Amino acid sequence: MEPSSGVGAEKRPPTVDLVKDKNGTDQILLQNPKGASVKISLHGGQVLSWKTEKGDELLFNSTKANSKPPHPVRGGIPICFPQFGTRGSLEQHGFARNKMWLVENNPPALPSFDSTGKAFVDLVLKSSDEDTMRIWPHSFEFHLRVSLALDGNLTLISRVRNINSKPFSFAIAYHTYFSISDISEVRLEGLETLDYLDNLHEKERFTEQGDALTFESEIDRVYLNSKDVVAVFDHERKRTFLIRKEGLPDVVVWNPWEKKARALTDLGDDEYKHMLCVDGAAIEKPITLKPGEEWTGKLNLSLVLST
Ligand SMILES: O=P(O)(O)OC[C@H]1O[C@@H](O)[C@H](O)[C@@H](O)[C@@H]1O
Question: What's the pLDDT tens digit per position in 50-69?
Fold first, then answer.
C-alpha cells in the first residue's frame, strides 16, 4: 500500500501498512512520524487501537473479545450505523460494524482536509451487496477517513451519500471505548444540565443536574444536543480525553457495570472498571438524505497529559 502523502515537518514520513490479524482479517496500521499508531480493521471499519508515541494504549479492548467476523470486537470504536441500539428493526446497532469495508484508493475529494504530517486511510462501505439491500433497501456509500495527526490526534470523518432515487434516514454513533484506570475515579464533563434519554428506564427523558458525571452504577444514556467538546478526566492516569465532534449532536454514555458485564460473554467480569464508552452520535433526530445528498460527521479525539 502506498504511504499517505503529507511528509512534513518530521524526517520520517507517516506510514500506512496493511497487516493481518490472527484470523486473517485485513487491518490497516497507521503510524505518525513520532511513533504514535492507530490500527483499523476492515471488518466493521472499526478502529481497534490508538497508541501514543510511548506505546500507551488509549482505547479499551476486552481480553475476551471475539475478533472473528461477523462479531464486532468488544472495544475500540465500532461504528453503529444505520441504527443505534434497538431503535429500529435492524440488528442491535445496525449492520455496518459487522460488514467488511474496502480500502478506497480514490475517495471523493474532501476539500477541507489538511494532510500535512498525517497518516490516513480511506475506507468505504457500499450498499451493493444483497444481504444489506435485503435488510435495508437503500443505496448508499459510507466513506470513512481515519487519520492520525503529528500530535497524535485521531480523527474519523464520515460521509454518507444517498445514491438512490428515494430518501432514507439513519442514525450513527462512534461507540468509543476509552481505556480508563478505574470507572469509580473518572469524571465526564460537558453534559451538565442536558436532557438525556435513559435506556435503563425505557428511553424516558430526564434532565442532568449541574455537576460533572461520576460513576457508581450501570449507565446507558443518550445525552441530547451536547456542546461540541466533552472531556473524560482520569486523575489516576493523569490524562484527559477531549472528544470534539461536528455534525453529531448527541452523546452516548455507557458502562455495563458488574452484573451486565458478567452477562456479556466477550467482556471479563471486572473489565467494566477499565472502560467507559462515550460516543459522538446522531440518534434522537435521525439524519435524512434526499437523493444525491451527502452528510458529513467528524469525531476528533485528543489526549491531554497532566503532571
Ligand atoms: O453489546 P453491544 O451490542 O455492543 O452493545 C453494547 C451497549 O451499547 C450501548 O451504546 C447501548 O446503549 C447499550 O444498550 C448496549 O448494551
Answer: 999 999 999 999 999 988 88
87-111 pLDDT per residue, tens: 999 999 999 999 999 999 999 888 7
Ligand 1 neighbour 93 (Cβ under 6 A): yes
What is the span of the domain harbouring residue 269? 15-305
Q: Is residue 146 part of a domain?
A: yes
- Residue whose CA is closest, atom 15 of ligand 1? 85
In a domain, 61, yes or no: yes
Domain count, the chain: 1
Of all protein residues, whose CA lies closest to atom 7 belonging to ligand 1? Answer: 254
In a domain, 232, yes or no: yes
**What pLDDT does residue 177 have?**
98
Residue 9 domain-assigned (yes or no): no
Neighbours of 280 (CB within 10 A): 29
pLDDT band with cut points at 50, 70 and 90 for residue 5: very low
Tell me how far the alpha carbon of residue 275 lies from the centroid of ligand 1, in angstroms. 13
Query: Could you tell me which of 285, 221, 197, 203 has the C-alpha nearest to residue 249?
Result: 285
